[in-house]
Amino acid sequence: MSAALEREWTRFTPGQRIARWLVWLAVVASCVWAVRTIEVIPEFLLDAPEQMADLLVRMWPPDLAHYRMGVHDALVETLHIATLGTVLSFAMAVPLAFLAARNVCGVAALNWLANLCLVASRSVNALVWALLFVAVFGPGAVAGVLAIAFRSVGFVGKLLAEAIEETPRGPMEAMEAVGAPWGHRMLKGLWPQIQPAFWGIALFRWDINVRESAVLGLVGAGGIGVALDDAINFFQWDKVATILLAILVVVILAEIVVTRVRRRLI
Amino acid sequence: MSAGLSIRGLSKAYVPGKPVLRDITLDFAPRGVTAIIGPSGTGKSTLIRCINRLVEPSGGSILLDGQDLVPLRGRALRLARRRIGMVFQEYNLVERLSVMENLLSGRLGYVPLWRAWLRRYPEEDIARAFALLDAVGLPDHATRRADALSGGQRQRVGIARALMQRPALLLADEPTSSLDPRTAVEVMELLTRLTAEEGVPVIVNIHNVELAKRFCGRVIGMHQGEVVFDGPPEAIEPRHLTQIYGGEDWM
After folding, report:
1. Looking at chain A, which residue has its C-alpha nearest residue B158?
2. Peptide bond into A61 cis (omega under 30)
């Protein structure tokens, strides 16, 4: 009885405690180092509130008439870029996801190769992809669609591969025991299990792509970004305000649509 | 070779040098229910899964109606598996599909991909699925999703799916272990009755000795990868159970 009372419980071993303390030290040290090396120009920082207020005054009131004269068409083009880009990205991402999922593709070299493609796609920002495709295809919506698609492949492929890997093995095993060929097993064993994840990812990525494609125009890849860039270059701040408002409204509408559709699907 | 299943010198080692099954030789009649009993980890599941090659045997042969299943690969293996139905402990239904589609999945070895894709299953398959739903006591559940069913109902669907294959042999891996005692009896009753009607031999892994004695015409007792008892349920004596499970305190 007394022996039981004397036993002591500690959450961490001394080694773990030292390791945790070192991690905290490293975090604090890197923050201090980051603040000291980042080059903040005090003059710009100090008059930032003034500049901000000035900008807002110039923006008000927004030139709402401008919406119908150029913003609307650009906005629709942006939505088209986002939607086509998402569809195209899925066409590329689905095969890669299957190759990357270890429970579907047993060849380690292919898993590795597919993951490399996915990481490569993610490591390049949509704007950089857009610069590349503007150089290849010239300015316009084609470059925008391809930029969105190539940036999305990594994101979509990774999440899909994870969804595939997380499916319970049981139903697939049952399909195997039935003597179903590979395609049948994927169609009736795997697809129903990943369906909610698939549509969830598709809607989420479309939602992101609507926002991303709004800035692609800054590098000439079509959409509302072109209108925004022009307005900024001509210092037409009331038009800039209109465009920003239009983007805000579209993003909010997209959010509402996505939430509703997702609730239906899952 | 005769009809039915015949296992010759089957062995399996997941890790070399540590055999789970040691030189199993068994013959099964083309009818009737055979129970395999034994403690956990003694190779019962491995034995069952070696038969339809969900587990790869290390040696020996498994003859179904004279055909050796062990060397089969690819398409030939699939064609052999079509003739072997399987019922799982965790049911292994596709949760998000309807009961009807789960049943029709039993035909996936026979139906072309485009038909499965468009859900244009042959009329006779659909008719059989409805008949089996009636037989397992779920006549009104065709359009319900599998995840809306209780455990007992799911296992009934599992049995119906296996029978959709019109199998020459039915394997059941602990079909009642996830069920309450009463449902377990009902499911065993259903399994033995339907397979008797269709003339399908059954091999069932089972933890519950009483259920095995009650429903099975033959009991095989395993201990550490070897068969230590093989006979009718009436012949099981306490000493046999001691031999199978070890110790006596639990009896």
Report:
1. A174
2. yes
Q: How many CB atoms sit inside 10 A of residue A238's CB? A: 16
Q: Do B54 and A174 count as a contact with CB atoms less than 8 A apart?
A: no
**Where exactly are the structural domains of chain A?**
8-56, 63-265
Closest CA–CA distance from residue B182 to any residue of chain A (Å): 25
Count Cβ atoms within 10 A of the Cβ of residue B13 and give its class: 0-12 exposed, 13-18 middle, 19 or more buried.
middle
The predicted model scores a pTM of 0.82
Q: Count how many domains chain B has.
A: 1
The answer to the question of residue B51 being in a domain is yes
Classify strands B218-223 and B59-64 as parallel, antiparallel or unpaired: unpaired
**Which ranges in B21-135 belong to alpha helices (H)?**
44-51, 74-82, 99-104, 113-118, 123-135
Instruction: Quote the minimal CA–CA distance from B236 to chain A in Å.
Output: 32
* pLDDT at residue A48 in the model: 87
Which residues, given as ranges, of chain B have pLDDT below 70? Answer: 1-2, 251
| Residue B250, in any domain of the structure | no
Coil, strand, or helix at residue B32?
A: coil
Size of interface A-B (CB pairs under 8 A): 81
Q: Which residue, among B92, B90, B89, has the nearest Cα to B205 in the 3D structure?
A: B89
Q: Which residue of A has its CA nearest to B114?
A: A184
- CATH number attached to the domain at A63-265: 1.10.3720.10
